[in-house]
Automatic annotation (TrEMBL), chain A:
<dbReference type="GO" id="GO:0005886">
    <property type="term" value="C:plasma membrane"/>
</dbReference>
<keyword id="KW-0812">Transmembrane</keyword>
<keyword id="KW-1133">Transmembrane helix</keyword>
<comment type="similarity">
    <text>Belongs to the binding-protein-dependent transport system permease family.</text>
</comment>
<dbReference type="InterPro" id="IPR000515">
    <property type="entry name" value="MetI-like"/>
</dbReference>
<feature type="domain" description="ABC transmembrane type-1">
    <location>
        <begin position="315"/>
        <end position="505"/>
    </location>
</feature>
<dbReference type="InterPro" id="IPR035906">
    <property type="entry name" value="MetI-like_sf"/>
</dbReference>
Automatic annotation (TrEMBL), chain B:
<dbReference type="InterPro" id="IPR017871">
    <property type="entry name" value="ABC_transporter-like_CS"/>
</dbReference>
<dbReference type="InterPro" id="IPR050093">
    <property type="entry name" value="ABC_SmlMolc_Importer"/>
</dbReference>
<dbReference type="GO" id="GO:0016887">
    <property type="term" value="F:ATP hydrolysis activity"/>
</dbReference>
<keyword id="KW-0813">Transport</keyword>
<feature type="domain" description="ABC transporter">
    <location>
        <begin position="2"/>
        <end position="229"/>
    </location>
</feature>
<dbReference type="InterPro" id="IPR003439">
    <property type="entry name" value="ABC_transporter-like_ATP-bd"/>
</dbReference>
<protein>
    <submittedName>
        <fullName>Carbohydrate ABC transporter ATP-binding protein, CUT1 family</fullName>
    </submittedName>
</protein>
From TrEMBL, chain C:
<keyword id="KW-0732">Signal</keyword>
<dbReference type="Pfam" id="PF13343">
    <property type="entry name" value="SBP_bac_6"/>
</dbReference>
<dbReference type="InterPro" id="IPR026045">
    <property type="entry name" value="Ferric-bd"/>
</dbReference>
<feature type="signal peptide">
    <location>
        <begin position="1"/>
        <end position="22"/>
    </location>
</feature>
<protein>
    <submittedName>
        <fullName>Iron(III) transport system substrate-binding protein</fullName>
    </submittedName>
</protein>
Length: 518, 235, 327
C-alpha cells in the first residue's frame, strides 16, 4: 500500500465518518421537490430563548472543564510529584471512575444517594448539580493527560529549576507552563463531552441546547430544522478544538511512552497525611460512593440473579458489539493516524480538519443520519443487523481513537521505517516494524473506543437491531419501570465487566510495552 | 569547594555508587572520566541535592549538605548544574531564563549575556537559537545565580571541535575568575588532560584513580587508558 | 491482504447467519418492556413466529421509535408498531408511515378508539391520573379540577412531565381541544408561575411523589400502579370526576406501510387485539382498562375527546409549552 493509496483510504474513511452528517445537512438544504433551497437556514436565527439555552450549554461546558482542571491537575501533581500518603494506591484507582458513564453518575447521585444532588428543594439542583456530576465524571481525563505530560517531560527541565529556586517557583514557573498544552487539551475534551451530553441534563432537569434539537426531532418530527439547529453546537466545539490544535501544533497530548520511573518527588513532610484527604475525598465521591450506593440499592443476591436473568443477553450483546466496534476503530484509525502523522501538505490538513468535525454533533443527529444513509437497498446485508450498530460506534468515536494512535506513531522514529524499506515492501514494514512498535497505542485506542461504545445511549437506541438491546438501553427500561434493584445490579454488571475488560487490556498493554527491547 | 566522603548509592537495589570520595577546589576544574553507566551522572546529582545517597556525606564550602537522612534542598546549595540535554525551558525567552535564576541585582544578568555573546537575543526562545547559542545560554543561566559550584554533565558532547574548544575556554575562564569549584563529566581523555586541574576516573561505581594534575605531576594518556583496560575486558 | 479477506468473510458470515430466519415479525413498541415482553413472548410460543422487538427507553418516551419509523419510511424495517398511546399514531398516519389493516377484531372496538379506515386500532387503555403521597395530603385536600393547581396554595406542590413529549403532551393537547386555546394557555402559564416541577417522564413524577419531595404528581395509571403494588404510601386519583373527566389513553396497534413481513404482522396485530391480550393487560401489573364493546365501563368519568382533533393541537401546544417551560 503506497502512501497515495493510504491517503485515499483515509479520506474515504473520513467520508464514512462524515457521510451521515452530510446526508442530513444535504436533505435539510433541499425543499419538497428535491431542489436546493436555503429556506431551512432561517432556523439559525436563534430566538432569545434559544440563545439562553446555547449560552447555558457553553457555560456548562466551560464550567465543567474549569472544574475538571481545578480538580484534575492538582490531583495529578500530588500523585506524581509528591510523596502524599497512599499515592500508589490512588494512582491505581482514581481513573476507574471513567468507567462510570456520566448518566449513571447522575442517576446514582440524584436517586440512590440520600442527600445527594437534585433532591427537590434541598441540596444542589440545576447548573451546580450538573457541574458536580460532570466534574466527577470527567476530571480523570485531565488527571490522565497531565500525568502523561509529566511523564513525557524532560526531567532535567524541572531539576534545573530546582537548583536555583524553591519547589513552588519551580512548579509555578516551569512545571505548570510546560503542562499547559496537556491541561488545555484535557479541558477541551471535557468541554466537548459535556456540551453534547443530553442524558445528564435530562436527568437533572437542566434545560440545555441539545434539548432544543431533541424537541425539533421528537416533538415536531422536523428533522431538517433539528439538523440545522445542531450547527451552532458543532461550530462552538470546532472553535475550541481548532484553538487547541493551533496552540498545540505538533505536540502530541497523549503520551504512551514507558514511564521513566523518575521525576522529582517533593517531600510534603507531615502534610502528606493531610493532603491525602484531597485524592481520598475525590476518589470517594467519584468512585466509592456511587459503587457503595449501587451495592446498597441492588440489595441481596436474589436481585442480582433476577437482574442477570433479565439483562444477561444485553450484557453480552453490549460487550461483544463494543469490543467489535473498538476493534474496528483501532483497525481503521491506524492508517488514518499514520497519514496524519507522516504526511505533509494540503491534503493532510484537510484530513485533520474532516476527522475532527463530528466532535460536536449530538448523538441523536448521528443516529438519524445513520438511518438515512444506511437504510438503502445496497446496504441490506448491514441494515437491521448488529453490524450497523458497530459501524455507527466506529463513526462516532474513531476521531478520538485516531488521536490516541497518532500519539503512538509520533513516537516511532521515521528512520526506523526508512531503514526497513531498504529491505522490504511497505506492507511488511508496517506489519513487522511499525505495528510492534505502536501496539501499545493500539491497545490504548481500543480501550478508549471500548469504554465510549459501551456507555453510548443516544445513537445506539436508533440503530440497534430489532430484537436486540444494549445494556444502557436495558438499564433505562428498568429505570422507568421503577425496578431500582435491577437498575443497580445491572449498573454494577456494567462496571464490573468494563473493569475486567480494562484490566485484561492493561495486562496486554503492560506486556507489550514492557518487552525488553522497549 | 566540593568534598564527597564515602558515598554509596543504589537504585532499585542495584548499586550505582560504592564508597566514592573525591574533592574539587575553588577556581579549579575536576574532570570526571569513565565509561557509560559508571555512575558519573548520579554522583553529580547527589552533589546537587537532586538525589539522596544511602550513606556517606557531601560537604560544600565546609558545610554539611548531605549526611544521613539530612539533605539540604538543591536551591540552598549555591550549586549550578548543566545537563547533557541543556534543559533549556522551551516556554521562556533568554532573559526570562536569566531572570528566573538570578538573585538580587539585575545588573549581572545583562553583563553576563554580553560576556556570553547573547546580547541582542534577549527576547529569543530556545527554539530560535543556534546550537552554540543554546550552549552559551545554558552556561549563562548556570552562572547567573552566582554559584560557588558548577557541575557539567557532558554538555558539549554533540558539538563540533572548534565550537567545543571555544565554549570550554569560555567556561574555564569563568571558573577561574569567579573562583568556582567545578566538576565536568567528559569522555574526551585528551581534553581532560589538557584543561582540567585534577582528574577522577570512575569505573563501575568506584573511583578508580584520582590525580591532582600539575601539582602531583602531569597525567599521561597511557595511564588513563590503563584504567579503562581492566573494564574493557570485563573485570 | 489474505488476513483481511478472511476477517471480512468471517464478519459477513456472522451477519448473514443472524439475518436469515424463516418466519419472523419485527415489532417496535413504546409500551414498557416489562409489560409488553411477556405478551410478545407468549405470541412467539403460541405461533412459532420469531418476534424481533425494539423497546423504547424512557429518556425519549415514545418519540425515539417514532423518529426511527419516520427515518426508515423509505425502506421500512418494522412490520407492526404497538404504541402505548394514540396521538403519535395519528402523527405517523400524517407522515404516511402506515397502511390500513382491519383485524378480525376490528369491529369489537367502539368507533372513538379506532381509525375509520383501519389505519390503526385502539385497545386496552391507560388514564391520566394524579398520584398523591398520603403521608403529606389526603384525597379530600385535592381541588375538584386539575385546573385549580394554578391557585397559590398549590405553589411548588405539583410535578408534571415535559408537556412536549409522551402522554403529557397528549394531555395538554386534549385540554386545547376541550377547554379551548385561550384557557389552556392561561392555565399553562399559571402552572409555570406556580413553580410546577417539570421533569423528564411520568415515572420521575411518580418517584418524586413516592419520595415525598412533592405531594401531587401527574402520571399514568400504569406508572402509578407500580408504586401501589410496591406498597408505597401513595394513592391514585382520577381527576375531574365531576367535571370534564379523566383522559383515557388507548394502546394503538398499526401496520407499517411496506412492511417486510405483512402476513406475520397481521397475525401479531390480531393477537394483540384479541380478548385474551386485553384481559392479560387488564390483569397484569399495568392494570389497563379494557375498551372493547361489552367490557365493564371504567370506574371513572372519561373525558370526551376526538383523538384526531387532539392530534391537530399537538404542534401549537408543543410550541407554546416550549416557550414557557424550556428556558
Amino acid at each position: 500500500m503506497g502512501r497515495k493509496r493510504l491517503l485515499a483510504f483515509s479520506l474515504l474513511f473520513s467520508g464514512f465518518v462524515l457521510a451521515p452528517f452530510l446526508m442530513l445537512f444535504f436533505s435539510a438544504l433541499t425543499n419538497g421537490e428535491g431542489s436546493l433551497s436555503f429556506e431551512n437556514l432561517h432556523v439559525l436565527k436563534l430566538t432569545s430563548r434559544q440563545w439562553v439555552l446555547l449560552g447555558r450549554s457553553v457555560l456548562l461546558g466551560v464550567g465543567a472543564s474549569l472544574g475538571c482542571v481545578i480538580l484534575g491537575a492538582p490531583m495529578s501533581l500530588l500523585l506524581n510529584r509528591t510523596d502524599v500518603w497512599g499515592r500508589s494506591f490512588f494512582r491505581k484507582v482514581y481513573w476507574l471512575s471513567l468507567i462510570l458513564p456520566p448518566y449513571i453518575q447522575a442517576i446514582v447521585w440524584s436517586k440512590y444517594i440520600p442527600g445527594g444532588i437534585d433532591s427537590g428543594w434541598t441540596g444542589m439542583t440545576g447548573l451546580p448539580a450538573a457541574f458536580f456530576v460532570f466534574i466527577l465524571s470527567f476530571y480523570p481525563i485531565v488527571t490522565l493527560l497531565v500525568s502523561s505530560g509529566l511523564e513525557a517531560m524532560d526531567q532535567s527541565l524541572e531539576e534545573t529549576a530546582r537548583l536555583h529556586r524553591g519547589p513552588w517557583a519551580a512548579m509555578r514557573k516551569v512545571t505548570l507552563p510546560l503542562l499547559f498544552p496537556h491541561i488545555a487539551c484535557g479541558a477541551i475534551l471535557v468541554f466537548v463531552f459535556t456540551i453534547i451530553n443530553f442524558e445528564v441534563a435530562d436527568i437533572l432537569r437542566l434545560k440545555v441546547y441539545p434539548l432544543e434539537i431533541f424537541i425539533f426531532f421528537s416533538a415536531y418530527y422536523d428533522e431538517k430544522s433539528a439538523t440545522i439547529l445542531s450547527l451552532p453546537l458543532i461550530f462552538t466545539t470546532l472553535i475550541f478544538v481548532w484553538a487547541q490544535m493551533r496552540y498545540m501544533g505538533e505536540k502530541s497530548y497523549v503520551n504512551l511512552g514507558r514511564s521513566q520511573g523518575g521525576g522529582i518527588v517533593y517531600s510534603l513532610g507531615r502534610r502528606r497525611y493531610v493532603l491525602a484527604l484531597f485524592p481520598a475525598v475525590i476518589t470517594f465521591l467519584a468512585l466509592a460512593a456511587p459503587i457503595l450506593a449501587l451495592l446498597k440499592g441492588a440489595g441481596n443476591l436474589v436481585n442480582y440473579g433476577n437482574a442477570w436473568k433479565g439483562g444477561a443477553g444485553a450484557v453480552w450483546y453490549s460487550l461483544w458489539t463494543s469490543a467489535a466496534s473498538a476493534g474496528g476503530m483501532a483497525l481503521f484509525s491506524f492508517p488514518v493516524a499514520y497519514c496524519l502523522v507522516r504526511m505533509r501538505g494540503g491534503l493532510r490538513g484537510v484530513l485533520d480538519f474532516l476527522i475532527q468535525t463530528p466532535f460536536g454533533a449530538p448523538s441523536i443527529v448521528l443516529g438519524i443520519g445513520f438511518i438515512t444513509l444506511w437504510n438503502q437497498p445496497f446496504f441490506d446485508a448491514v441494515y437491521g443487523t448488529s453490524l450497523l450498530l458497530i459501524l455507527a460506534m466506529i463513526a462516532a468515536y474513531s476521531p478520538f481513537v485516531i488521536k490516541v494512535i497518532s500519539a503512538g506513531i509520533k513516537r516511532v522514529d521515521e528512520d526506523l521505517e526508512s531503514v526497513g524499506r531498504m529491505g522490504a515492501g511497505p506492507l511488511k514494514v508496517a506489519a513487522r516494524i511499525l505495528l510492534p512498535l505502536t501496539a501499545p497505542s493500539l491497545i490504548a485506542g481500543f480501550a478508549v473506543g471500548f469504554i465510549l461504545s459501551l456507555s453510548n445511549l443516544g445513537t445506539s437506541l436508533l440503530v440497534v437491531a430489532p430484537g436486540r438491546s444494549t445494556l444502557p438501553i436495558t438499564i433505562y427500561n428498568y429505570l422507568h419501570y421503577g425496578a431500582d434493584e435491577t437498575v443497580c445490579a445491572l449498573s454494577l454488571f456494567l462496571l464490573a465487566l468494563t473493569a475486567a475488560s480494562l484490566a485484561l487490556l492493561l495486562l496486554i498493554y503492560k506486556y507489550l510495552s514492557g518487552r525488553a527491547w522497549r | 569547594m566540593i568534598q564527597v566522603n564515602q558515598v554509596s548509592f543504589s537504585r532499585n537495589k542495584k548499586p550505582i555508587l560504592r564508597d566514592v570520595s573525591l574533592q574539587a577546589e575553588p577556581g579549579q576544574c575536576l574532570a570526571l572520566l569513565g565509561p557509560s553507566g559508571a555512575g558519573k551522572t548520579s554522583l553529580l546529582r547527589i552533589i546537587a541535592g537532586l538525589e539522596t545517597p544511602d550513606s556517606g556525606e557531601v560537604i560544600l564550602s565546609a558545610q554539611v549538605a548531605t549526611k544521613g537522612a539530612f539533605a539540604a534542598p538543591p536551591e540552598e546549595r549555591k550549586t549550578s548544574m548543566i545537563f547533557q540535554s541543556l534543559a533549556l525551558w522551551p516556554h521562556m525567552t533568554v532573559e526570562q531564563h536569566i531572570a528566573f535564576v538570578e538573585r538580587g541585582d539585575g545588573e549581572t544578568g545583562k553583563d553576563l549575556l554580553t560576556r556570553m555573546k547573547l546580547d541582542g537575543k534577549e527576547k529569543h526562545y530556545p527554539d530560535q537559537l543556534s546550537g552554540g547559542e543554546k550552549q552559551r545560554l545554558a552556561i549563562a543561566r548556570a552562572l547567573a545565580s552566582k554559584p560557588r559550584r558548577l557541575l557539567l554533565d557532558e554538555p558539549f558532547s554533540n558539538l563540533d571541535e572548534i565550537l567545543k574548544e571555544n565554549l570550554l575556554s569560555l567556561f574555564l575562564e569563568q571558573v577561574r575568575t569567579q573562583n568556582i569549584a567545578s566538576i565536568i563529566v567528559t569522555h574526551n581523555v585528551n581534553e581532560a588532560i589538557e584543561k582540567a586541574d585534577s582528574m577522577a576516573i570512575m569505573v563501575s561505581g568506584r573511583i578508580k584513580k584520582f590525580w591532582i594534575n600539575k601539582k602531583d605531576r602531569i597525567i599521561t594518556r597511557k595511564e588513563v587508558l590503563e584504567c579503562f583496560e581492566e573494564y574493557r575486558y570485563g573485570k | 491482504m489474505k488476513h483481511w479477506r478472511i476477517l471480512l468473510s468471517i464478519l459477513l458470515v456472522g451477519v448473514l447467519a443472524t439475518s436469515a430466519s424463516a418466519e419472523e415479525v419485527v415489532v417496535y413498541t413504546s409500551v414498557d418492556r416489562m409489560f409488553s415482553e411477556p405478551i410478545l413472548q407468549k405470541f412467539e410460543k403460541d405461533t412459532g413466529i420469531k418476534v424481533l422487538a425494539m423497546y423504547d427507553v424512557e429518556a425519549s418516551k415514545t418519540v425515539g421509535l417514532v423518529n426511527r419509523l419516520i427515518a426508515e419510511k423509505r425502506r421500512p424495517r418494522a412490520d407492526v408498531f404497538w404504541n402505548s398511546e394514540v396521538i403519535r399514531t395519528i402523527q405517523l398516519l400524517k407522515e404516511d408511515v402506515l397502511t390500513p389493516y382491519k383485524s378480525v377484531y376490528y369491529d369489537d372496538f367502539p368507533a372513538t378508539f379506532k381509525d375509520k379506515d383501519g389505519y390503526w386500532t385502539g385497545f386496552a387503555g391507560r388514564a391520566r391520573v394524579l398520584l398523591i403521597n398520603t403521608t403529606m395530603i389526603q384525597e379530600k385536600d385535592l381541588p375538584p379540577s386539575i385546573l385549580d393547581f394554578t391557585k397559590p396554595e398549590w405553589k411548588g406542590k405539583v410535578t408534571i412531565a415535559y408537556p412536549l413529549f409522551g402522554t403529557t403532551a397528549m394531555h395538554v393537547a386534549a385540554l386545547y381541544d376541550y377547554i379551548g386555546t385561550e384557557k389552556t394557555e392561561a392555565y399553562l402559564k399559571g402552572l409555570a408561575a406556580n413553580d410546577v416541577l417539570v421533569v423528564d417522564g411520568n415515572s420521575v413524577t411518580r418517584d418524586l411523589v413516592v419520595q415525598g419531595k412533592v405531594p401531587v404528581g401527574f402520571t399514568d395509571t400504569d406508572d402509578a400502579q407500580v408504586a401501589i403494588d410496591k406498597g408505597d404510601p401513595v394513592q391514585m386519583i382520577f381527576p375531574d370526576s365531576t367535571g370534564m373527566g379523566t383522559l383515557l389513553i388507548p394502546n394503538t396497534v398499526m401496520m407499517i406501510k411496506g412492511a417486510p413481513h405483512p402476513e406475520t404482522g397481521q397475525k401479531l396485530i390480531d393477537y394483540l387485539l384479541s380478548p385474551e391480550t386485553e384481559k392479560a393487560l387488564q390483569e397484569g401489573e399495568s392494570a389497563q382498562i379494557p375498551l372493547r364493546k361489552g367490557s365493564s365501563p371504567p370506574g371513572f368519568k372519561a373525558m370526551e375527546v376526538d383523538y384526531a382533533k387532539v392530534a391537530d393541537y399537538l404542534e401549537p401546544s408543543a410550541k407554546f409549552c416550549q416557550e414557557i417551560f424550556v428556558r
